[in-house]
Amino acid sequence: xxxxxxxxxxxxxxxxxxxxxxxxxxxxxxxxxxxxxxxxxxxxxxxxxxxxxxxxxxxxxxxxxxxxxxxxxxxxxxxxxxxxxxxxxxxxxxxxxxxxxxxxxxxxxxxxxxxxxxxxxxxxxxxxxxxxxxxxxxxxxxxxxxxxxxxxxxxxxxxxxxxxxxxxxxxxxxxxxxxxxxxxxxxxxxxxxxxxxxxxxxxxxxxxxxxxxxxxxxxxxxxxxxxxxxxxxxxxxxxxxxxxxxxxxxxxxxxxxxxxxxxxxxxxxxxxxxxxxxxxxxxxxxxxxxxxxxxxxxxxxxxxxxxxxxxxxxxxxxxxxxxxxxxxxxxxxxxxxxxxxxxxxxxxxxxxxxxxxxxxxxxxxxxxxxxxxxxxxxxxxxxxxxxxxxxxxxxxxxxx
Length: 400
What we know:
With 400 residues, the chain is of the alpha/beta class. The protein has three domains: 10-60, 2-Layer Sandwich (Phosphorylase Kinase, domain 1); 67-187, Transferase(Phosphotransferase), domain 1 (Orthogonal Bundle); 191-370, Spore Coat Polysaccharide Biosynthesis Protein SpsA, Chain A. It has helices at 29-41, 67-77, 82-98, 132-145, 152-165, 169-187, 218-228, 258-269, 287-296, 321-328, 363-370; strands spanning 10-16, 19-25, 49-53, 56-60, 101-102, 110-113, 118-121, 127-128, 191-196, 212-213, 216-217, 234-237, 247-250, 274-279, 301-306, 309-318, 345-349. Helix 3 runs parallel beside helix 5, helix 4 crosses helix 6 (169-187) and helix 8 packs antiparallel against helix 10. 41% of the residues are buried. The model is unreliable at 386-400 (pLDDT under 50).
């Protein structure tokens, strides 16, 4: 069953009056108003709007695959024109019905209903006035640039869309050049990753990093999330942390200084100006939450917030914060909250299910994690911070 996807906002599976549904929480009220208005007037196929409250929409959950998933299926099974003809028809109909079209060529924003032979549009807050050929060029550019680029299937789909939406070769070249430039700009912002695994695990009674959760250790779950974001510089805090291929163990420079000691040592070693930080004992935290937090980060420290609480050990830290930490722990340990008055401190609010933030500090909490369905999309897969080509470690139950 396909879950909705949004680059800017937060989307979660829920049950609404006994029906499978999704809640979409908007970062900006303007985006909410824009999408709500579209749902009220759009006459093309789209998910049913079940409920609307300021800043939140509840939508019917759909079983259909996205067009990106259909593209990947066709790469394996061979080209099929029907989905691309249906997409062109949806774009043309949307232009007539709404006078607005998607401003980005995201194939995840369309579902393919093979039984009905129709496309359903989703994620409307980015719509703006434009002509079908302009929108078609954006979609063709994204399609052709998706890794691996310019395959026979992608070329055939592009030809089909170009013909039906009257997209010129010049429009496609311009759209591809703009997309390549946009991705190159994003790649300039690089992140390191840090997993805090140097605690004593006193309440658990055994080393948390080595606990097996559905075939993988907690440490492996967290490292896979960072890899899914395209992170290659992965630092493990703590001299006694278990070794993991492709990562670096960083012992504390100053001993017995608590979490700030681990942050201090890893930030000194980080290769990049910003560092994603997460604890080893939050295995249910989805990778895309970290991705969105990175996008929200501007400077200093950005931590995860939920229901008035803050999680300072799940966040994004500038490498330069290490210099601020050093004098705080020169003589003794200090709480992480001591940084709040010394650096730019912001909070990224999380609106999803609280159980995904479960902290496995005790055997009872670990048992709760074991009972969770780890096939939930997004746990260890994501678009990546900079690329449309996702890295997806196997996070199914029982995977090794």
